[in-house]
Batch of 2 targets.
Target 1
Amino acid sequence: MDITINKQMVQKNEKEKDFTPVFKINNLNLWYGQDHALKDIKFDIPEKQVTAIIGPSGCGKSTFIKTLNRMVEMVPIVRMSGEIVYREKNIFDPKYGVEELRTQVGMVFQKPNPFPKSIYENVAYGPRIHGIKNKKVLDEVVEKSLRGAAIWDEVKDRLHENAYGLSGGQQQRLCIARCLAIEPDVILMDEPTSALDPISTLKVEELVQELKKDYSIVIVTHNMQQAARISDRTAFFLNGEVVEYTDTSTLFSNPSDKRTEDYITGRFG
Amino acid sequence: MVSRDKSNQKSIRSMIQENKSSRSQSAVMEKVVPKLFLICAIISIFTTIGIVFTLLTETFTFFNRISIVEFFTNTRWFPFAADKHADFGIIALIMGTLTVTAIAMVVAIPIGLAAAIYLSEYASAKTRKVIKPILEVLAGIPTIVYGFFALTFVTPLLDKIIPGGISIFNALSPGIVVGIMIIPMIASLSEDAMNAVPNSMREGALALGATRFEVAMKVVLPAALSGVIASFVLGISRAIGETMIVTIAGGSRPTADINLTESIQTMTAYIVQVSQGDTGYGTTIYYSIYAVGMTLFVFTLIMNLLAQFISRKFREEY
Amino acid sequence: MALINKESVKKRMGTRLAANGVAKFLFILATLFSLLVLGVLIYRILSEGLPYLSLDFITNFASRMPERAGIWAALLGTIWVMAVTAPVSFILGVGTAIYLEEYAKKNAFTKFVQINISNLAGVPSIVFGLLGLTIFVRLLGLGSSVLAGGLTMSLLILPVIVVASQEAIRTVPREIREASFGMGATKWQTIRRIVFPAALPGILTGTILALSRAVGETAPLLVLGALAYVAFVPENIFSQFTVLPIQLYNWTSRPQEEFHMIAASGIIILLIILLIMNSIAVLIRNKFHKRF
């Protein structure tokens, strides 16, 4: 019995080496004050695939995704150890600026959070802060990004109206467009559909499928069906640890850990 | 869905990369800007230091000429008398200030508190929506206008009502008008305190058959007492520092006697009187306004700190 | 035997309800008193002041003859002083608020600044006059100029603007700051392009209300030595000046009834200015109310 599991693990480890990793996480630990929120996290995130992070509330999945672009440091009492290597660079290296990292690693948040500006200005914000001022270039970027987020047709006639006039689902796709405008390498999505209705959720899910052609996507979701539908690989988090990490179909059809099985069959969480 | 134009894709990402040079420039901004804002914040501290320093140094000069003992024990204030006959006993000015303040609080506390209770416990949301802006308007009227009102309306009115009449400058009229000026402040601060009392406390008492009045007096008011008292103390501080109403309607005859119908002078009114005259720089009278200002500052500071202490120390935990 | 005597409860209920009724009546009366005073005050000022109100009254200089007196110098003096006060107090106030809300660490110094500001708000305005007299008029040698007056007024209303701006900045939700940081924006970029524009309506409302307080202030400028009788308009920030409230004080403190009448006319103008400023502030507040 023990031997078979070991064999499986070996196979998995071999499988993991198939892809080009965009992130390599090594022995990542994180504390909120005394609270040990992430424990010895160690796995690689593949390029141009969708990696889903699932687990019950409070398991550390949101905290984890926010370490990838160092947004977690906005909480003042956070302490971390270990390393996260993004494209051969340790993101905690003081020489590697946090602004530069976030230019490469974009983020879409739980609640749609457009700026209180026009739709155009929302999308143009990223290029602008990175020094692109040319109006023609900006126009192009805005259109391309809005098309990329599958919202262009809905907003092309009211680009200069306030973004707060959009519906929740449109706002979230606008936030995705805003993220695309600086052409990041990785897009982090922190429960992007938890505040949306089913139809908007579907649109965002379709969009994620489209986007993975060009971007590496990490998505946190509390919705297991969503993870099963859209992701290529899935990591199951529990109490700050990675219980299981493998390709999505294996994890859902043939989980190797009892706790994973309990979770995906709905025994807790 | 979208055919990504390769050349353009390169351009945005590479343009951002190219702009890295401008980032060193913005890195300088990141360091400089917080310092600029810190300077703004420090100016507010310098204002306080400036006030204290100014008052202290000039007051010190004043006490080199007039003994501090005389200043606080003499009950006569006649600075304009010829040198040897001049008296600098601030008690006369303090009495004027306290008289006006006392009258003001007699007016403002019951009316302000009653209005607060009405707004918080009885009035409908609609009524509140009408009355609160009107109170705000009252609070926004400049004191010069209140002073005009005191002199040209309240004083003649009192003259008719009070048997034996009232002199044109007196303590009563500005006292009442200062009180009117403070009503909105006490009403709105007390109402805030009462609004903070959770509804469950009211409902508990109402469910036992208590009347609205009993709820207000026995449940809400005791629960909000610290906030309500703090509003009184702030009102007192405001009354002590009030200048134009007492200058216009109070007169300029400092006295330690309490006589509501006769002319008085407050600390603030004295400072204005000297500023208006042609007192030369460096005279004892010139320095006296700082000594009076210092006394005034200490009075109001104590009141403000007391109000903060009360509302912090006795803050109710609901 | 019942612990509660229902009969006596019933009997007492009558008096308790009566007490409630009387109390409610008194509370309403107290509330109405304020409204009554406001009504009387406005009626008195209109009835005394309206007859003298004319275009000449606005464009004439002060005069020893009430029928020829006007507020032109005072009106322009007020505008000049505000032209100094508005930018200075806005920059200092908003700067302080941004520092306290965005940059300051939660330490003793920050707490000290915050307590200091709330105490400054309680200092009587006339004490600011003494400060201005010593520092600006004498120490910096500005004399009783528009500049000295404007700077003194700036310090007077600074605490109000700081507190209003802090409240406005606090209403900007954390989520949109995160969105900005998440795109690689620096702190200053986020403040300048996101937080400040979003908080601006609240900041403006607070600033206009604070300025309207400064427009009505008399005492500090009197202490500074602003002139009570001025027959010229300021030419630059180093000119001597008077302001509307000082002109009104001057007229009010004269014994002649006619001067009281034109004081009332001047008060009408002053109140109209304040009404306009407050309306603008309320308009901004309502227009941008609850955007987040």
Target 2
Amino acid sequence: MADTTLLPLHRADGSATYSKNGYSVVAAVNGPIEVQRRDELPEEAAVDVVLRPAAGVGGLRERHLESVVQHTLRHVILVSAHPRTLIQCTLQIVTGPEDDSVTCSLPQAASDLPVLPALLQASILALLSTSIPLSMTLTAAFVAVNSKDTLVLDPSVQQIKRASSIHLLAFSSRGDLLVVESEGDFTIDKWEEVHQKAKLICHGEEGDESESEDVSMKSDDISKLENVLKDAVERQIAKEQRWNQTIG
Amino acid sequence: MPREAEPSFNERAFLLQAVQDNIRLDGRALDTYRNLDISFADNFGIADVRLGKTRVITRISASITAPRHDRKLDGIFTITTELSPLASPAFESGRQSDLETHLSRILEISLRRSQALSTESLCLVAGQKVWSLRADIHVLDYDGGLIDACCLSTLTALRHYRIPDTSVKGGELTVYTPLERDPVPLAILHHPLCVTFNFFELGEKWLVDATLMEQQCSEGEVVVAANPQGEVCLLQKGGGGEMDALVLLRCVEVALGKVRELGKVVDGALERDAKRRDKGGKSRELRAENER
Amino acid sequence: MATQTIVLPGEAISSDVLPIPSNPSLALKLGPGLRHTPPSTITSVLAGTLCIDQRKNAIWVENNSGRYVPQPNDLILATVHHSSTDWYHCAITPHTTLAQLPQLAFEGATKKTRPQLNSGSLVYARVLSASKHSDPELVCYNPSTGKSEGMGELKGGMVFDVSLGMARRLLLARQREEGGIAVLEEVAEKVAFEVAVGRNGKVWVKSGGVKETLLVGRALQETDSEGLGVQEQGKLVKKLLRGM
């Protein structure tokens, strides 16, 4: 299951760490702060996302990931509440699962997708640790479809390499689909199956405890991903309210 | 461009008065470091250093490339530091601030030019293939003490890192995976660390490991990089107010002591981590396959 | 009175959680952290504890994290950044737009006899207005009475950072009963000092000497960071006084 901490950093307004499936990401949010004139929006807050990879300075892949996260956050943050300001989100990948630390001289053509759920979750958690108003929260699920056409949740690096398609889906707290990114060969029906499963993982459905047989799962904890968010917030509030325990 | 907020006149006056009385805001002595905490990830070569509120993670990675044409027998070692808004809203990503340039230069000289890591040892096939090692320094939290923390973090990560074992037979290079042969430690020739001094009262008083506010109220800075053997690798006084030469020499003396102290903390952390990993290691020794 | 329901942004507040007003003609007041979508949906926009006040028929989300955002009527500590013809431009929090403090917004100030503040001066002021569309405006006196009421330039002393939650507790009328703060009372028995608490998480302390001021500051900061209860605060103060 995911490992989360809120407010591990002192200087940033809000921060969080999120570790799952070999990925460990630190996110920091600063805002609302002063914005540069050229980025200023008259009626809304500007949202800026910076992604730092674990090793190296980052290139095209990081820019693409930043853009996905930035567009998602713009929907989640109530940008009209703080016009002419900047909300700055910085993401740092600390570790990844394929941490060979030895790379060939040719850059690997690995996919962007596997790190995206951790990036999205970390940024949401960091936002929750600030007082920036949000219209919803978000949870992300990562599903692979293997050669036997079964769905694999939280696939390992090997499973991703051998999968026929991989999918990232992020849902809002209301159950609406916010982000979809898919790679590989798949049919619409298969995607629909992936969609249903991902929705179940993130959002949960009342009374639907049945497991369909063609889903293989690594983790035995099927609790809604949304509970991860709530749990992190509860722990933080409990820490802040320690002094209150002694008041009758 | 955002800049760190300057302390108010009251705060500055108070801090200077306190220093005059040899008192620091957090109760430390003038020559004491903040609490230093070092931890490691599961993978080799990632060191997480916390010095008070400052936090730095350095990560070592390696790849095989052709050597530089003017240094055919040496491997390549690069250190990158990029300050991001994670550490402080005053840092802008994509723009190299003065602090970053200063930091890069100090680390470049104390760790790279001092040959702490033997670049000769990184050579695999002379003139054709060498290891290119990268140290990526990520500053997560900034409250002063940046140079000291980054140097600690990078040196610790280098000492912690294990590079794949290799062998060359007739010009053919074989790189062994961790399953075939255990990765080996790097050839580190000596352990330089940096100690930063910030001075006050026209160079009469100095303190070690300044917090951000102490740094902002100080007149100037002196950085000494040295190893536990007592050899000085770098002595830098970058502008700022005047300082008596004898006070400067005293700083170097204090630095030598501090480097030994800090070095012991690093040794301790590495030992504890080795023990933690070795729990599995003992059982590996008992396996039937052994080196003949 | 506060009930401990934790809400996340996007959660709708169900009507059975809403307070039952003792006075039925009193309209429901939505405090910070809640958004009203007509006709009758109330959603949370912050992560925090849902608080209900039966008497005032008010409901809000308690959230003390993140960056301070200026609210009208808040008392804050600001640093003067620079001055222009008629105003001082002050920083309430770092990296945000400067707030404006009219040079005459002090007790008894006229064009000839106004206080001269320099860059770096510290002021204790009240937020007069703050909206998302304009820069915040400050005053260092009460416009209706003309009195400073403790506001104005602060000379000497030292500023200590505390969390926004702690600042809020310190500003309560009944610090000990509602905010669980006894530390200042305990210190005051042995050490004389002055404090000015800013809702923006800054506390100004002035005492006899450096050691005394640091004692008060450290007592506050440790109470805050360790979440000490009233008893523990007493122990902390005793320990600090012994160390003096």
